[in-house]
Amino acid sequence: MNENILKRNRLLADKVIAGLKSRNMTGYYAENKEEALKKALELIPEGSSITMGGAMSAEEIGLVDALKKGNYHFIDRNEAADRRAAMLEAYDADVFLASVNAMTEDGILVNIDGNANRVSAIAYGPKKVLFIVGMNKICDDVDGACKRARNVAAPINAQRFGLDTPCAKTGSCMDCKSPDTICCQFLFTRYSKHPGRIHVILVNDFLGF
Q1: Assessment of whether the complete model's pTM goes beyond 0.85
Q2: Which of 39, 69, 149, 205 is the most buried (most CB within 10 A)?
Q3: Which residue segments constitute the domains of the chain, with CATH numbers given?
């Protein structure tokens, strides 16, 4: 990556981390995927019960693979006989892995969900929530973060899942009420009531959507 981009991202990450701290959340900066993986594993004690929402970023840094192979109780909803039961286990898990659809420079996390299992677990339940966030998801403000979530993340995810939504066809949000819509719940995490619960690893890379 160009050195000027690296420098800019380091400075921006400092601003985001300060914003997270002011919101009772903890931020970290990783120069690459390898550093992000190392930091994530430092934050997850062996023996922990772990589950996740749809977090492509956690998969891209190798975290999901490492947890499945390591000394952890990884609850994989995709391999469970009862998918709903596996998803409900998230609320009592030690660690919930996630990413964001977008976040602001001052530390507000923005997420959109279809079934609400992801945003509800972020809001309440798991003892710790660990976000893996590429620097490509940082936006100026809440308005910009919402636009990114609706016009970048949502259309790509709709296409990825083969959903019949207007955004899957046009590439941008049409504010639809389609039965296939994945924009059912919007979660803005602007402060954490519980110290030490929310951790965000910012990665100097293009991760997720």
Answers
A1: yes
A2: 149
A3: 3-203 (3.40.50.10420)
